Recover the amino acids of this structure.
């Protein structure tokens, strides 16, 4: 079946521009995650949704970063007034919810590579 | 807080040789541990996971990992490397009370020489 998709795959922005990154999770997956992966580093947690509720946004680096999932499916990560340090790959992941398992396997999309000039 | 350390940002092995990728974790409570693989321009794919059952975990593509509490380690091994194993590998940790929050290591790039 279809996996997690992200668009655009590549985005170049001038410093100060706003950008919006889209994530289409696997159909039926309740949980959705955003990660930031800087060059040469592992992914770092940004935020987490369960359905439309944003349950954890502790990883968002500043108030310029905003994420939403209004209908509990597609999610958008918005970065306002982009800075050079925002250059990274932004990964989206989704997972099914299983209370009995006590953990969730996360399925990752291919990422959006953001370059801020 | 939880954290992961992956020793060796680059590992090179010959085809057919043993693969050993190291992961040490820090957690104040029993962890859940994961290994993911990332091929160029692709998302992360789960190789295997430890969730407090058997300490020796077998995953896809012939990989396995052993949870050693005394050493706080979860090293990834494969008896015989294949060219197709060349990729970047990430170890991650989470805990039962916040299992949705993964902490990833900085990754190890595996190069397989013919």
């Amino acid at each position: 079946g279809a996996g997690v998709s992200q668009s655009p795959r590549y985005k170049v922005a001038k410093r100060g521009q706003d950008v919006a990154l889209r994530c289409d999770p696997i159909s039926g997956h309740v949980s959705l995650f955003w990660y930031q992966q800087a060059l040469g580093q592992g992914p770092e947690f940004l935020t987490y949704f369960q359905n439309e509720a944003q349950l954890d946004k502790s990883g968002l680096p500043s108030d310029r970063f905003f994420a939403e999932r209004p209908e509990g499916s597609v999610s958008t990560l918005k970065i306002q007034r982009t800075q050079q340090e925002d250059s990274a790959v932004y990964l989206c992941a989704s997972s099914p919810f299983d209370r009995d398992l006590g953990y969730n396997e996360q399925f990752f999309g291919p990422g959006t590579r953001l370059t801020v000039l | 807080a939880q954290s992961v350390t992956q020793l060796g940002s680059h590992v090179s092995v010959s085809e057919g040789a043993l693969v050993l990728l190291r992961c040490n974790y820090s957690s104040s409570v029993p962890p859940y541990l994961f290994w993911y693989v990332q091929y160029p321009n692709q998302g992360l794919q789960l190789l295997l996971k430890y969730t407090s059952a058997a300490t020796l975990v077998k995953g896809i593509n012939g990989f396995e990992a052993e949870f050693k509490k005394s050493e706080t380690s979860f090293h990834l091994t494969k008896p015989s490397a294949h060219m197709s194993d060349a990729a970047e590998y990430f170890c991650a940790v989470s805990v039962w009370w916040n299992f949705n929050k993964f902490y990833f290591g900085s990754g190890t790039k595996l190069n397989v020489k013919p």
About this structure: The interface with chain B takes residues 3-4, 31, 33, 35, 40-45, 48, 55-56, 91, 93, 95, 101-111 of chain A (CB under 8 Å).
